[in-house]
Design a protein that fits this description.
By secondary structure, the chain is α/β, with parallel strands linked by helices. Helix content is about 40%, strand content about 25%. It contains 16 helices and 15 strands. One of its GO terms (cellular component) is cytoplasm.
Length: about 400
């Protein structure tokens, strides 16, 4: 319920798994019998129908989707017609707002101009390219399949088709120097993109890269190195006219990712596809009460079992949980402190009864936040030490 509703479609397929990747994604040999890319769009469309019926049965009345986002995995390993078909099913079931943002992620070597033109014809407004680096030896370390030339061709094709192009970068890869990182950021900005995401490399021990680090054949990421690289991208993005609006994201005004802002603002969204998460405001004791509570659900992990549940006529939830007032407030604090719009401490006061003035003073005196009209906004130092800021607010206002 609420003013915004989003749809996320997870496409859990990749041509090859990158060494650092811990996402729920599968190459063709991983899938095994009973699951395939060929019928994925049909199965995802059927899940949409089941979810829509489930929402109605539970008194959840959503407005037309304000954003649609295809993530993965690599959504663009599916034919462009499959993605366009799924947008059509969303439109038929929920409606899509006239000014909606419709995005797909793309690996740069999985799209060409014809593919991108088809997306534009089918209603897409935005493509987020997984660039990661512009330095060949860093791409090899990350086990990426594309070259810098693929990124240039993809972004240029998107721009020619009238789509907003964004690029994702990763910093902190083993062997990446600060100059390597500057090269990557400069290459991205020189493409004229109006949105840039930059994420510190996170290595899980179960990944191929994690095993190489554990064996000593690769050095582990260094926190100080990553802090330096964050300061580099922040300065270079601002010089190019892209302002930070979330800790890991910079954009020209009006080019922010509206879909991701919805996550950070805790709007409702339906997650479609294996492992996709959903978030709803559920009516309490029937729709007539007017009261709601937050609820989170997540889909079955493996595409085969996910498909079996759909064929049996069930929404393929693996689990769900109610989000109580305390957990809801914790999420509001954590998410708000990632955003340039900041955290409304007056609203926190209204929910907790705790005077926020002392913690606001402490954080501003420490140079971690600024405070404007009751909202605290992380400074550059506060972004680098965001966990510290969050914990201090938790300690001050939560019982």
């Amino acid at each position: 319920m609420g003013n915004d509703f989003e749809v996320y479609v997870h496409v859990p397929f990749c041509l090859r798994r990158c060494g650092y990747c811990d996402f729920n994604t599968y190459t063709a040999p991983d899938l095994g019998a009973g699951a395939s890319r060929a019928n994925y769009a049909r199965m995802a469309a059927r899940e949409m129908e089941l979810v829509h019926d489930w929402q109605r049965a539970h008194g959840i009345a959503e407005p037309a989707a304000s954003t649609v986002f295809f993530g993965g995995g690599t959504p663009t390993v599916l034919p462009a017609d499959d993605l366009v078909f799924l947008v059509g099913r969303i439109r038929a079931l929920w409606g899509i707002a006239p000014d909606a943002e419709i995005t797909t992620e793309a690996n740069p070597d999985t799209v060409d101009a014809a593919y991108i033109d088809r997306l534009a014809e089918g209603g897409f407004t935005r493509i987020s390219f997984g660039m990661q680096s512009a330095v060949p030896h860093v791409l090899r370390t990350l086990e990426r399949t594309h070259t810098p030339a693929h990124v240039t061709r993809g972004v240029r094709a998107a721009q020619a088709a009238g789509l907003d192009a964004s690029v994702d970068l990763i910093y902190g890869a083993p062997g990446e120097s600060p100059d390597d990182w500057r090269t990557s950021v400069r290459a991205a900005l020189d493409l004229g993109v109006r949105h840039l995401s930059a994420y510190a490399l996170t290595v899980e021990p179960t990944t191929a890269m994690g095993r190489r680090i554990a064996s000593g054949t690769l050095p582990k990421p260094d926190d100080d190195d990553e802090a330096v690289k964050y300061e580099i991208v922040d300065a270079m993005a601002q010089e190019a006219g892209l302002e930070w609006y979330e800790i890991s994201n910079w954009a020209a005004p009006g080019h922010e990712s509206r879909h991701n802002l919805g996550y950070w603002r805790n709007v409702d969204w339906a997650g479609i596809g294996p492992s996709a998460h959903s978030h709803y405001r559920m009516p309490d004791e029937g729709a007539a009460s007017g009261k709601t509570h937050a609820m989170r659900a997540w889909d079955t992990l493996h595409p085969r079992r996910w498909g079996q549940q759909i064929n049996e006529g069930y929404v393929p939830f693996a689990g769900h949980e109610s989000i109580g007032p305390q957990a809801d407030l914790e999420e509001t604090i954590m998410l708000g402190l990632r955003l340039r719009e900041g955290l409304d401490m007056q609203a926190v006061h209204a929910r907790t009864g705790v005077d926020p003035a002392p913690v606001i003073q402490e954080l501003t005196d420490s140079g971690l936040v600024t405070c404007t009209q009751g909202r605290i906004i992380p400074t550059l130092r506060g972004r680098l030490l965001n966990d510290t800021v969050i914990q201090r607010v938790f300690s001050a206002v939560l019982h």
